[in-house]
User: What shape does this take?
Amino acid sequence: MSKDLFQELKFRDPARARALAQALARNMDAIGREVAVMHVCGSHEQAIARFGLRAVLPPTLRLVMGPGCPVCVTDGPEVDEAVALALQGVRVCTYGDMLRLPGTARSLADAQAEGGEVEVVYSISQAIELAQAHPAEQVVFFASGFETTAVATAAIALARPPENFSVLSAHKYVPAAMDLVAGSKETRIEGYLAAGHAAIITGWEIFEPFARRTGAPVVVAGFEPLDILAALVKLTELLKDGRPEVANVYPRCVTREGNKAAQASLWKVFQPASGRWRGIGEVPGGNLALTPAFAHVDARRRFAIDTGPVRDDSAAAEARGCLCGRIMLGLATPDHCPLFGTACLPESPVGACMVSSEGQCRIWHTYGGVPDLRQVG
Ligand code: SF4
Assistant: This one.
């Protein structure tokens, strides 16, 4: 790529950042009251915290993170299923962040320590390679992630995987959780930033019924600091003008209709199902279950999974003071938690939000939450 083309991109242009911050301040002045908006993506939170964007937001604009960390919302009983499989002799493969995620009694790391076969993989393709390398063993991929990641799982299911390979789906569907948040009287979220990578698959039109139904505008945002600031300017503009519409400020990647082929694969392999999200509870249509046509790769249908009695792990963590549930609903931030950075640390997490690099507590522990620029020399 030529140097000129790099200069064209201008993703880190301080003058543009200042101009966007000023436009944001003007919009909030015109609105004239406090407003809370939510993003639902760990990658957005990483960029917001890493680049200290909350320090340049007008004080009346509250930008909160919702249920945007797929590892955090994987429920304890789902982890229990993976643990039970590992302890009954199945080789369980999953992403690294899932290893220390607490189940109701044990994590997969605990199962590994007890002799269970647990492998960390970087992609589902690597799990397929393991199944091919161990044809005499059963290999289960414990699949977490939102609809973006579920597309990769769907592609593998459609590609005739080895007979000794199956999927334990903990995939979640974000629009269902947005409906739940919007329906909550407590959260009072007035507008949403939608994750650009998920919208590459779904297209931005998927949010139109949501915006009409809830009266809350939605803006699709990319992941550079300027993408996020520009999306906030657009979102506050829509709020100022009372227009509950969908806007796409990530047009270099996202189209109105999205990737139709990927959507077709996704809905051939998965169907929405009601299920629990950790810390949040039952989310109607919030889980992605394999369709009956893919029963041959569905670990829940292929194995008798005995998890034993289930405890409510969220309640146990809450009893220790963990605010993960409230954080994932945008009702609290990590600094409200008395355990943040003391009893709860990345190496010894109490709640799920500290386990994953996409969890808000872990992100704030790494980068800080709301930097005070007055302290910068
Ligand atoms: Fe839960 Fe730890 Fe976050 Fe507190 S800091 S809310 S205990 S994950």
Summary: Residues 317-371 form one domain. The first strand starts at residue 35 and ends at 39.
